[in-house]
Amino acid sequence: SSRHSAAASTGPPGRVTPPPAARTSSMLAARLRRLASESLIYGLASMVQRFLSLFLTPVYTRILTPHDYGVMSLVTTTFVLVAAVASLSLEQAAIRWYYEADDADGRRATFATWLWTHLVVSGTLAAIMGVGAPWLSCAIFGDDALVPFLRLVAITIPCGVPPLVAATWLRVTERPRAAVTLSTGLSVLLIVITFVLVVGLDLQLHGIFLAQVVSGLVGAIAGLVMARDVAPPRLYRRARLRAMLAFSAPLIPAGIAVWLVSSADRYIVQRFVSTADVGLFSIGSSLAVITTLAVWAFQTAWSPFALRIRDEPDAERTYGMVFYLYCAGGAVWVSALSLYSLLAIRLLATPVYDRATSVVGLMALAFLLSGLTSIVSIGFSIAKQMRPTAIIVVVSALTSVALGVALVPHLGIVGAATGTLVGQAMQPVLLLRRAQSVYFIPFPVVRGAALLAVALVLVIAGEWLFPSVLTLPGFLVRTACVVMLAVLGLRLSGLPLGRLTSIFRGLRVVNQP
Asked: Using CA atoms, how far apart are residues 33 and 122, in angstroms rounded to an integer?
């Protein structure tokens, strides 16, 4: 008390300097406000994009059978794999080297090197995919029915590079409005073209993939225009590429492993059950993917934010509070999404898709845990040690695939979702243990894990024990559970309610040139 009084009395005349504890608390609140502000704008943009996409889901479910929906999911999943390999995981390296560069030319050279490397590799793999489409189709589907769709999506692989680089450049230069304008505009364009081709011209599956090609070409042009500061080939640096690849190389198998955890389940369902069940699983996953709106928005803001404050006082406390708030907010969201999932399915699809509710909560929790990985592994990024991350992600992926193969023949799509959840859960658990030995951060693991465990219990109870949400008792019971979980999360946070509300009252969007 006397030390605080003395500290408060020092400083310029007429101004009282707050005691150290007050300054620390104020600094933490300011950091959380900034992270929340940056996440908010990306989240709002993602929400707009996702809801625009959901606008087409009722159209798809009334025009496409579950079998056709499964075909679309299998082709899209294959595209995601090829695009992930083509990226060489250079995005994280580009962000890391951006903050390492001493001048503007060095930062621009980093992004130019990423842009042109990514374009060349993705173009090459797209050509290989187009030529090998018959083989791929037979391997996935058993015949050549997927060939025209695979060739259409191959065209879009290099088209997606300029918008990605442009959006990342705008993010690191703190221009989030421009970044979300680009991504949202391209999403709107894709939806409009899809609606015209699928509904207006009745092209069905061909129309869906043709719309991706058209919007992809427009996106490539728009991305090059918005990334014109880093687009000149003369900025390419071979030495910089070698350094970036040394950093990202361990993440390439990790990227493939992430795809295995999140997407291989569709191939397993198709192999052991049916293509129609792939469609049901995809509808349930599509509803669960709403979780990734907040997760993606957070991750988009988190990496630059965490690296930016790494040398500031009490940065570890900030990391710990972010960990807890992520777990608490995510647990409430996953529980609510799962408990009310049947209402959403009835709005988006016909009753024939009702069985998709059985995977919504499990997949939503899996997506949430995927985002948690970026928090617990931040120590590896700070220390520039990415190999442990890659090894752990690969182990988790192999576990997920093995569980899927073992469970799907007996449990169907629920077995696929369970395997995915276990694989995703392994990643933050193993990464946390390993990362703490590299760069210790006092994460409140017990409190965060307890809330996630409660969320899992509610997911299971909502599917198998609670009355249907379509009845009044079922709706009231589910609502009471969500409210109680939210209250528990607030009580365990250790922060006064006033401090939490002040964080969100202070939200503002940063959009500096």
From this structure: 38
Which residue stretches of the chain have pLDDT < 70?
Answer: 1-56, 292-294, 296-297, 299-313, 379-389, 435-439, 494-513
> pTM score > 0.90 for this model?
no
Sign of CA dihedral 345, 350, 354, 356: negative
Contact 367, 232 (CB under 8 A): no
pLDDT tens digit string along 281-326? 988 888 887 776 667 667 666 666 666 666 666 777 777 788 888 8
Contacts of 472 by beta carbon, 8 Å cutoff, 6+ apart:
none
Q: Copy the structure tokens of residue 338.
A: 């799962």
Q: What is the pLDDT of residues 474-505, one digit of tens each?
A: 999 999 999 999 999 888 876 655 554 544 44
Amino acid at 503: I
Question: What distance in Å separates the CA atoms of residue 376 and residue 444, rounded to the nearest whole number?
Answer: 11
Residues in CB range of 332: below 8 A, 6 or more apart: 455, 482, 485, 486, 489
C-alpha 202/C-alpha 62 separation (Å) is: 12
Spell out the residues 6+ positions from residue 169 whose beta carbon is closer than 8 angstroms to its own. 111, 226, 227, 229, 230
Amino acid at 328: A
Judge contact between 353 and 278, C-beta under 8 A: no
